[in-house]
Design goal:
The protein is of the alpha+beta class. The chain contains 15 helices and 10 strands.
Length: 368
């Protein structure tokens, strides 16, 4: 988002004494943040727990480690003896970027997929069903043998890496594994690795990004979910951590001023061009119907794809502008030549570095 020169100039123009933030209280905040990261992104020390309530709460904890739009964590969980239901948390909607709640229901599917893989590791087989009456994903749990799969083991390592990758190509075998993981019931995945096609998709991303940055409601909503400092991340435990995308970690007042100065169409489009051109490829998830049930299934497919990628040492990040901007969505579908199928998610993938992590709210905050 910001170049090193822009950051230095911005700091010089906006603050003199604020640089002390980086060496004073911020040092303590970073330590507490690192502790919180370790406590959040971890496996259960002992998955042979017998107590049913403890097991179910651990399954919910694993579910909350899934991806969600803007890391809103837009879910609630209802625990019963043999079922766990995942419901929308309507207070965490993003009406500007997600007016029809598509991403919200995709997020529920992501959480469901994590929960099902975690359940296997605790000796339970999970069956997921979307209830169209009350918009919940109901997961029925039955006793089964313990299976600690590669995808389960990848849950605490998975993250959306919103930085440049190193440009290396994937092997045919790894591409095949990602393709298998990304298929579902009524959902397909298109893997695009040809440079010319990637450049074409970049054009759609740039068009969508330009429209969004010029949309005041979108920018206002995005700003509300950015967490600029370790203190803010620790306090909110949700949202998009600035450090995760390589931006400066500063107090909110300073972060907002820097964002207002440097968050421009030109800089953001240049950033996306670098990100996309450094990637090994782009995955597009398409579904047979544009409804909540298929949105949930798309979320399950994406999360499975992301876990498989993580298990293979591959990073990924969303590029959803072509499906978020309504005026582009049908044009993008026509370009993809997918007929009556509906484009749901656009994701870049490749090899890259680990980035700073977001946090999650405690289980107590999401259980009904």
């Amino acid at each position: 988002m910001l170049s090193r020169r822009q950051i230095i100039l911005g700091f010089t123009a906006l603050t003199g004494g604020a640089m002390a933030y980086a060496t004073g209280s911020a040092h303590q905040s970073k330590g507490r943040y690192n502790d919180a990261v370790r406590d959040t992104w971890r496996h259960t020390p002992n998955n042979s727990i017998i107590d049913l309530d403890t097991v179910n709460r651990e399954l919910v904890r694993y579910a909350t480690l899934a991806a969600s739009s803007h890391n809103t964590q837009c879910w609630k969980f209802a625990i019963a003896e043999h079922t766990i239901s995942i419901l929308p948390d309507w207070t965490r909607r993003c009406p500007a970027v997600d007016p029809d709640d598509h991403h919200l229901f995709v997020s529920l599917g992501c959480a469901a997929e994590n929960l099902i893989h975690a359940a296997q590791a605790f000796g339970k087989h999970g069956f997921a069903h979307f209830d169209t009456i009350d918009d919940r994903v109901k997961i029925t749990l039955e006793p089964s043998k313990i299976i600690s799969s590669d995808l389960f083991n990848a849950i605490p390592q998975r993250q959306c890496s919103r930085v440049e990758y190193d440009g290396r190509k994937l092997s045919t075998a790894d591409l095949g594994s990602l393709e298998v993981a990304g298929q579902g019931n009524g959902v397909r995945i298109l893997l695009i690795t040809e440079k010319a096609q990637i450049e074409n998709i970049l054009e759609y991303v740039v068009q969508g990004n330009t429209a969004q940055i010029n949309d005041r409601a979108f920018v206002k909503e995005l700003k509300s979910w950015i967490r600029f400092s370790h203190d803010e991340v620790l306090r909110k435990r949700d949202g998009l951590f600035a450090g995760s995308s390589g931006n400066p970690i500063v107090p909110r007042w300073l972060g907002m001023r820097l964002l207002n100065l440097f968050f421009t169409t030109k800089s953001e489009n240049a950033k996306y061009a670098k990100h996309i051109r450094s990637s090994a490829g782009i995955a597009v998830f398409v579904s047979e119907r544009n409804d909540k049930e298929h949105w949930v299934e798309t979320g399950r497919c994406y999360e499975r794809f992301a876990l498989q990628a993580t298990a293979l040492g591959i990073k990924n990040a969303f590029l959803n502008q072509p499906v978020e901007v309504l005026s582009l969505r049908q044009q993008f579908a026509t370009y993809l030549n997918i007929g009556d199928l509906s484009p749901d998610l656009v994701v870049r993938f490749g090899y890259g570095t680990e980035t700073s992590r977001s946090l999650r709210r405690p289980v107590e905050s999401v259980v009904l």
